[in-house]
Structures are given as structure tokens and as C-alpha cells.
Amino acid sequence: MTTIHRQMWRRRASVLALIAGFSLYLTAPAWAQSELQTFDIPKSNLAQALNQYAAQANLQIFYPYAAVAEVEVQGLQGAFSADEALNRLIARTRLEVVERTPTSITLGIASSAVAQASGAADPLTEVIVTGTYVRNAIPAAPVRSVSRTDIEASGYSQIGDIVRALPENFSGGINPGVIAATGGGIGNGNVTNASSFNLRGVGSDATLVLLNGHRLNADSYFQAADISGIPLSAVQRIEVMTDGGSALYGADAVAGVANIITRRNFDGVELQATLGTTTQGGGSEQGYSFLAGRSGARGYGLINIEYARQDEITTADRQFTSQVPGENYLIQPQERSSLFVSLGHQLTDRISVSFDGLYSARDVRNVSKITPTSALYRYDTYTPAYNGALTLDVVLWSDWEARVTAVSSASRNSSWTRTPTSLSRSLYRNDLQYIEASANGTLLSTPAGAVKLAIGAGYRDEGFRRGLSGAANRMSVSRSLSYGFAELIVPLIEPSDRRVGLNALELSVSARTEDYDVFGQATKPKVGLRYVPVPQLTLRGTWGESFKAPSFNQMYSDSLLYVWSAAAIGGTGPGTALMTWGGNPGLKPETSKSWTLGADVMPDFISGSKWSLTYFNIDYEDRVVQPLTNYSAGLSDPIYAPFVVNSPSEVLMADLVAQADQIYNYSGAPFDPANVIAALENRYINATAQTVRGLDLSYRQRFSVNGGDLQAFFNGTFVRLEQKSIPTAPNIILSGTIFNTPDYKVRTGLTWQGRRLNVTGLLNYVSEQLDTGVSPAVKIDHWATLDSTVTYEVPGYGDLDGVRVSLSVTNLFDRDPPKTLSPTYFPIHFDSTNSSIIGRAVRLSLTKRW
């Protein structure tokens, strides 16, 4: 067993031991004990009842006032535990517990009594935790929430599919289904079937991903956080802050922060089985999930075990790709298993401890045959990963609370490549460990209200290892950093519903300093303003700076040299061309300035509706990219001229060959320097500038129809992404071009929720694009698909009690992706970053709850 294997198994054993220890601790009889209190709450509206409950239970309670003020409750008299008393008060209402601390409880809105039983959270809930360290503050930054109800209505079986459907997110980057996408500037590729966020289309490594507020490690050599191992049944909601977040969260939060929040107050057992297939053939899938949880006055525990398997889709399975050798996989087959454990216990009235542990493993296969006569390549990749976070919460004094969190996270990618004549192996390992301490509470009181402060500091280690066939290709690098941050929430005007035009005004200021042992120190600020002229309208704005350290791969990856036929990369006539590719140790951190302006409106004259509009602008400096975003136009597009040397000298060619760790010849003929007509530079570089600006628009409304709820929603994003590779070059418009984020993307639909029957219809729309891989560029048609999900809860009799059946169909009308003209090395003529070859997919899910 290698050293890397031993270390991986040691850490895995430590995580599992910690899980087992906490499980034994929390399943002890003491966990179930609840201290009884006497409650005397008269009949009143729910807001008044909750206020009296808070006073009698000696707790702070936060809830959406407008949703409960008109709800009447019968009251409560007698001796109950605090949890039981609260559950009785909110029974048969749309409220649920969203967050719990030793001294406070936060309530959100559940979509229905049925949804409440499953732990669902309503998309209209105003309880937000991402975007601020100050407890119970509302961030000025735009935050998009995907609720449990949204997840179940989507019909998707994997968390990655839900993320890729978000209009704010680009489906390219590091994601399954990405095939022959040569947009090297944003790292399109599918190496391990990982799933990643790619907000605004600026790269999968430019979005910081959190699990319950804890960082996840990077995956493989593209250095993007992989979310595919997070079991979907355990997810309560996904919050996405679509604004730079380095002033609070540190590096990687350039395009935004995504926080995947798991269930905390699930009581019972849930078994789920899902079977699915595609109507064109291939791609069959099956998934099984076991979820069990228990929550009480002193603690909670949840475990989710998930197994999923998906079959391949080959080029022979689709008429659209029938001209390609049938051995090629369009969708890679995989097996995936995961274990998630979340535990918490209140040790004393002031001290509580919690633990989140995630372990996952994924086996993926791929087959590739570039031409009918070329060798068949077989790839097998095994990816185990874990993430463990231990948190201690302490009530200090008054409303001040402190938190200490320790996190250890790692993943390993072991790949084998086989041809009829060779066998090679590669291994990549990413890991991180950090410890962070923070505190938040009231700094001082002013006539306008309490000034809230959050402060914190931490230390983080990051590591990257690579092992390829041959001792010369082994590498182990690491870096460390220490950091500190502070956030201040300052009310400028005392909130008042009676003051029209000046209901509330609040300023937020934050800053973070990080000191790297490799790059030195960086300090980034952020300011935000929330202005509420009337209760129905909130205006908000932010300005801040962000930064991102270059990834290990961008700095230290192998120096490669490719030999192409000139015609394959935009040349005319015979001859070959050389193209460099690889790391650059001289890279410096990327920096950005971003600002947003937005409005949230809940007009009285459109009952039950909420509208949001946000303008965003990101100026990204020193962006690390590979300058040739479209290989097939490398010699034909004049924007690439600064990176092309025509008729290279023998000395230059000899230097390129000598510097290359590996040489790949895709020209179809033996390499001959006399036939080389050009050399192209495509290493990672700090580009001069990249600019992203656009609009996010969302709408939701609820209607009461025939004894049920009808919800309508719309989410759309309009983006313009430009890049200037060198100061003398013109701006390149990347958005709306092949293998880049579309100009606009929309997801809209209707959901009807009855007592037992829920029906959802969803429309996904991707705007038309330009195929810049041919000259002159031609249009690629828009792509629109319709999804539908029908869920029925069987009337409860005996063993059928708690049984739910769900049937979902994605791409209902079996739309093929729009055809492109750009030649690729398969060739496959569609943009796999903005459309899918899967076609119509049908899934049947059976769920049983106890």
C-alpha cells in the first residue's frame, strides 16, 4: 500500500471512528431526556403566541411576521418540553424550525403540512444564513435559495443536475456530459464525472462551495469543488450568494458563494428507490436512499446512506451522433455511494457541539475512439472523498456567541488508461485542513438600533499530489495561510412601519486579510446598503473586492506540447502546428471588483407575489486562463494572433520540444519540424481583464386554487462575458458563443400542490449562440425543453401509510441538442456545455416514511 493510500485510509478511519463515537453518544438515553416546563399561552394570533412562548421558554425566537400575524392558535396550557410546546403551537401551520442554537430558534415557512412533515422549506422564506457571519442578519448581497420543495419538484435524482439547471449557473466547466468542449479558457472538461458550480461561467474554480458553512476540498487537477457525493435526500436547501464574497469567506469566492444546507430536524425514517431510463436507449439509472433522523430538546442526529448507478450512453445509441465510432461514450457509466452523518448535542445551557461527516466513493468508466482506425482508449477512475467538520458553540454573555470549527477534507482520483498495447496510471489527491474561531453579538446600542459585530480568525493548509506513470512525473506541493475577518452591521435609522419612505436603512461593512506563505498578504473589503422605504420594497446594493489564488494545477501541471494538423486548428493548406499547454509557476493571484444593485418587491396589489431584480458587474483582473478559448480557430481568428508564431525557427521548436514533459501528436503523421507552419502559446497566463455584467430576474406567486396551492415562478439570467487577453488585443465577447455561458438562460414553471397530489411543469430555455469555430461564425439555435413531475401520496392504511409515488419526465418532447458546424476530434456537432444528448428521461421514485 502506498503512502498516499495509507494516509487516505488513516483519515477515513478517523472520520468513521468519530462518526461512530458521536452516534453512540447521541443514542444514549440522556439524549432523549427533555426538561419539562409549565406553559400558559392563551388563545391569540400565532405571532403573539410565539412571543409568549419565547418569554416562558427563555429563548429568542425569530419568524417571518407577515406569515403568522393572521394565524389564530388555540393556545397551550400544561407541562411540556420546550420542543414539544413549540411543535404543538406550529402544528398544522406552514412553519418549521430552520435553525436552532442553545439560546435561539429560527422559524421559516414550509410549503404545506405535507411538505412540513418531510422537512421542506418554502422558497419564499426570508431566513438566510449565507452572505453574513452576523446571526439573524439579512445580507445586502443577493441570495438565491433553492428549497426542499424545489428539489423534489425538479424531478432530478442528483444534486449536480439541480445546480446545472440554475440560470445563474453555467453548465460547462467540470461537469458530467461535457464532451469535446474546447473552451480552454474556462476549463471545460469531464475527467471524473465530478459536478461543480460555475456561477456566471467564469470557471468552476471561481465559486466557493460550502457544506453547512464548511469548505469542501478541490477535486482532480481542475481544482473545482465536487458536490456529486452529497446525497440529495439529506439536503434541506441550497443558498447561492451571487456576489463576490472574499471579504467574508476568502479566496475562490469571486463569482459567488454556494452553501449546501442539510436537514437538522428530521424525525423518522425514509426509504427511497428510484429507477430511470431514456427513451432513445442507454443511460438507465437506479438509486436507493436510506434516511433516518431524530431531534429532541437537547440534540439531533441524522444519517443518510445513498447508492446510485447509471449506465452509459454511447454514440451508437443516438441517431444524432451515429456518424461517430460507436465505441465512444457520450455519458459515462458510474457507480456512486455516499454516507452523510450530522449530529448535535447541547452539553450545557451554554455549550453545544455538532459534527457533519460526509464520505463518498465514485467509480467511472469511459471509452474513446477518435477515428474508426485509431486505438481504443479505456479509462477507469475511482474517486473516494471525505469531509469532516466538528463545531463547538458557546454562549459567552448577553447575546454574544462564539464558534470554533475544525475541518478536514480530502479526495483522491485514481485513474487507469488502457490501450491494446499500453497501461498507465495517474493519481491526483487534494486535501485541506483548517481551524476557525469566530464570535458575534451586539457591539453597542444606538438610537437607531443595535450595532452587530462578527469577528474571526483561522489557519488553513492545502495540499496537492500528483502521481503519473513514471517516477519523473510525481509531484507533491502544499501551501498554508492565516486569516482574520470582521463584519459590522450598522442600523442608520430605527426601523418603523409607520414612517413611509424611510422604513429602515442599514449599512454593512466587512473585510478579510489572508496571508499566504506563497503569495504574501491580501486584504479585501466589502460594503453593502439595505434601504426599505416601505415594508413591501427593499432596495440593496453592494461593492467589494475579491481575489483567488492560482490553483496548484495552473501553477505546477506538466508542460505539454501538442502536434496538430494545421487544418484542425483553423489553418489552410498542408502542414502541422505546435501548441503548448501546461502550468506556469510565475502566476500571481487573480483579483476582482464587483458591485450589485437590486430590488425585492412584494406588492400588496399582487397578493402572494415576490419580485426580485439584480444588476451585477464583475471586473476580473489578472484572470488565469488559457488564451486559446477555441482550438479549432487558433490559426484563423485574428484575436489569437498575439499567441501565434508563424514559421517558427528551428531553435524555437527545439526549445519547445526540450521544455515539454510530454508530447502528443494528433496530426495523423509522424512529427517533422520541416512541416511545422506555426507555434501557438497556450499555457496558463494572467490575462489582462475579464468582465461579467448582467441581470438576474426572479418572480414567485402563490394562488389558492380548488383546495390546493398553485405556485408560479420565473428565474432568468442575462449575461455579457468579455475577455481581453493582452492590453493591445480587442475585447473578446465570450458569452453567447459556443462552449461559453449563453446570453440568457431561463427556468420557469408552475406547481400545483393539493392534499395528496402535486404536479409541476418546468420550462428550460437557453438562448441561441454563435458558432465561432467556423468562419464566418454561424448561429446555433436556441434550446428549449419541458420537464414534468407528478407526485402522489397514497392514502395511509397500514403498510401504505407514508408511501409517496413520483413520476418525472425531463425533456418531455425529446429535443435533440442544436447542431453546430465546428469540427471536433470525435467529431460531435453540438455544444455539450449548454445542451444535453440524453434526450427524454423518465424516472419513477417510490418513497416510504415512518
UniProtKB/TrEMBL annotation:
Superkingdom classification of source: Bacteria
UniProt key word ATP-binding: no
Domain Secretin/TonB short N-terminal: 59-110
Localization terms from the record: Cell outer membrane
Signal peptide start and end residues: 1-32
Keyword Signal: yes
UniProt keywords, alphabetically: Cell outer membrane, Ion transport, Iron, Iron transport, Membrane, Receptor, Signal, TonB box, Transmembrane, Transmembrane beta strand, Transport
Any single Pfam family the record assigns to this protein: Plug
Topological type in the membrane: Multi-pass membrane protein
Family to which this protein belongs: Belongs to the TonB-dependent receptor family.
Name of this protein: TonB-dependent receptor
The organism of origin for this protein: Asticcacaulis machinosus
